[in-house]
Design brief:
It is a single chain. By secondary structure, the chain is an alpha+beta fold. Helix content is about 45%, strand content about 15%. Helix 1 packs across helix 11 and helix 9 packs across helix 11. The chain is elongated and about 75 Å long. The relative contact order is 0.11. The structure holds a DNA duplex.
Amino acid sequence: MKAIRRALLRWYRANARDFPWRRSRDPYAIWVSETMLQQTRSATVVPYYERFLKNFPTARVLACASPDEVMRHFAGLGYYSRARNLHAAAQTVVREHGGALPDEVKELRKLPGVGPYTAAALASIAFDQPVASVDGNVMRVLTRLLDLRDDIRLPATRRKLEAAAAELVRGAQPGALNQALMELGATLCSRRRPACTRCPLHRHCKALSRGVQATLPVRSPAPRKKRLRAAAALLLRGGRLLMVRRPPRGLLGGLWELPGGELDAREQAAAGLLRTLREGVGIAAAAPEPLGSVRHIFTHRVLRLYLFRVTPQPGRVRRHGFDAHRWCSLTAARALPLSSLARRALDHATASQS
DNA sequence: TATGCGTGGGC
DNA sequence: TGCCCAAGCAT
């Protein structure tokens, strides 16, 4: 165990990649990075992280910002409940902890958006607490090191690995040990073609000694994605287009998009669009002009979004199921917090119609 | 315990 | 095209 610890730390000191969050000791900055890194590649996070910290340098500044402004800096990153939770948690930190992040796992876990992994990562990296943070990378490294063939989708497997990791990070430099395990999993101990010859743990790896490293970790297959269809409108009035904001919870919560909605089974796209406009924004229209479609893949769904240009009949917007609406210039619409899907839809619709 | 929640990249 | 994956969390 001691040899493993020493090998990991030495390897990490020599091989840690240079990320902006690794240059900071500020618990708030580390918190922001850990939140953005949840289920997200580090290369994707870098520009978001830098922009976010420039605009919201402290928990106090973040706590005072508007929800739209916070969401604007998460737009395109995905899993948007992270932004809402981070914002709410910053307000809690200001209100209950004087603006400074608590240093204990138990207190950190009470913050919305801070789960077992993030709490342990913060406590160890920012506050030197000897707790193990087990993410997907660590699970891959440890299942191989131990030749553990249990399904890593199961919580029971996760508990076993957390116990193993807890043994490892006992003692000095828990933050560096946790990061070393993650870094190893993110680089050498990759899912396919692990670079075992360069691995600091190759002498200790049970899976390697048995030649089964490429078969680990074992993970039961995910259920098949559901297909769904939706329609959205470039709804123009006096040179401005209508944008709507989705309610805070659920899919793409808090983000803006073109008005429209999901189609029923076998419903024609144009007819369905007119129905969703009637139901969602209380606007009547006729003869939608087709502008093509875009395909978008979510974690658990495959969406086909049909786009139309629509000339509305006179009448006020009466929202139902949306949070807010706004008549915008194209420039203003593009500056709203948009999901990647909404941005692509807007781009596609405006390019097709001109 | 199972499911919902984004996005972009790799093969 | 389809499937898997990447520093998970909430309900």
